[in-house]
Amino acid sequence: MINDAAEAYRGVIPDDCCPEPYMPAAELAAEMREMRFLGWNEGVLAGVMASQRVGDATLIRHAYVRPDRQDRGIGSALLERLLRDAAPGPVLVGTWAAARWAIRFYERRGFVLRADGDALLRRYWHIPDRQRKLSVVLALERAVPTPPARER
What we know:
Elements: H1 2-5, H2 25-34, E1 36-41, E2 45-54, E3 57-65, H3 74-85, E4 91-96, H4 100-107, E5 112-113, H5 117-124, H6 129-133, E6 135-140
Parallel strand pairs: 3-4
Antiparallel strand pairs: 1-2, 2-3, 4-6, 5-6
């Protein structure tokens, strides 16, 4: 499902950043051990989104919707669930700068493109320099709730 959805990157990002398959099974298995994956099932796996807590931030690490199931609210529903379950603090998502559709998706949901994306990518992600140079970071700044005062 991820590899099918990642076909959208072909011809948009450089070929050396778009391997075949985009995410080999062994890489996915390793990522599944490190992250929390949410899935959307419609008789088949129609979408996935993963999160990972790194330091004070929650990272959105993978967000894919099967091409034939896009524009049905699956990505929005997965994001809403991820945000509801995320720990307090900022939520960050890194994506390819050329993936304008992904950037628009997050911006429509309150995320802001960060000018310090390179520094954030260095701090929170372990990705190749080439990918970092071609990527951006969007953030959803969430206030840490103030605990209620104790009743006396």
